[in-house]
Protein: Alanine racemase
Organism: Scytonema hofmannii PCC 7110
Amino acid sequence: MLSHEKNHLTFNQQRDSYAWMSQRAWVEIDLAALSHNVRQLVKLLSPSTQLMAVVKADAYGHGAIVVAQTALESGASWLGVATVPEGIQLREAGIEAPILILGATHTPEQIQAIARWKLQPTLTSPKQALVFSNTLEDIKYDSPLPVHIKLDTGMSRLGTNWQEAAEFVQLVQRLPHLAIKSIYSHLATADSPDPTVMKQQQQRFETAIAQIRALGIEPPCLHLANSAATLSNRSSHYDIVRAGLAIYGLYPAVHLDSSIDLKPVMQVKARVTQVKTIAPGTGVSYSHHFVAPQELRLAVVGIGYADGIPRNLSNKMQVLIRGQRVPQIGAITMDQLMLDISALPADVQEGEVVTLLGTEGEEEISAEDWAKQLNTISWEILCSFKHRLPRVTLGNN
Ligand SMILES: *Cc1c(COP(=O)(O)O)cnc(C)c1O
């Protein structure tokens, strides 16, 4: 068990315990929203297309085990992870669904772990395929290991160049101990409103598959789509779609916002730890980047950049208290940040819950809002919350 899993208490356990009352900050994971998103995606797919829930990077910071379990219960049938330890973590939790390792694996130790834990690797080069076959021979692996052939059709990341696909597939097919389970590629620009590059990648994928078929090899399974392509391009669905961001309830791009109804799964919350009044001219936090223009009421909140609140949001972000937006002031520090709560009723006090990301009443602050302010993408925001913040699951059984 990883140390952070001990923090993965259910809402009821947390609410009823002293630990909950004294919790300074936490991440709420709404499993009902996750389940809703997975069901929405499944509805979009034809009955012959399966959904792979991409749960790499601890399920984009949401908690891999609970997300994988909920996604499988809600209609996903595959899981995607980046690394061997991520796959083992799911197997150790008793999850039996097929798990594709999207990242590269090379060493005999990794290959033995893949075989032992029944994980399914991505093959990207002849050299790697040979190491796999030889290692499985050495350990006298007795059944063929399902492997997935990755083609580079324009992402310029992992994969055999699409022009060499047929040759590579032929080689892997002839190697002992390996059974080709799927052939796949990854799109670089599926979230762009301009589909030109996506279409070109898809055309290259189709050409490679046609060349493989011309050798008399029928690929058992094809997949290409990430969340953006799943939402925007039905012809990219093939046999499996690999959805990450969308299952977490975020849209990969503004122009896809109305494609299906998604609900954000993650909220980030913390408590007010002190309230005070400061005089006009008083500096706030390190370097006094904020100086009170008039008397104001200040709230200290127990969350900071060591929890994953980006310090670059200092003096720029807002949070929600009692359904109202209030400005954050001064530099965000390692474990704490300050708010100007002058506009709120006078009875706001220590212990009050602050929503940093999430919804209160009519107001919402989303990972997209932060991403825009920080000139990054919502994927990075979701992945940025540290394990010091316990993940509190809501809406489960
Ligand atoms: C991360 C990843 C995905 C999921 O991407 P989203 O945009 O989050 O849906 C799909 N395929 C591969 C190969 C990935 O690495």
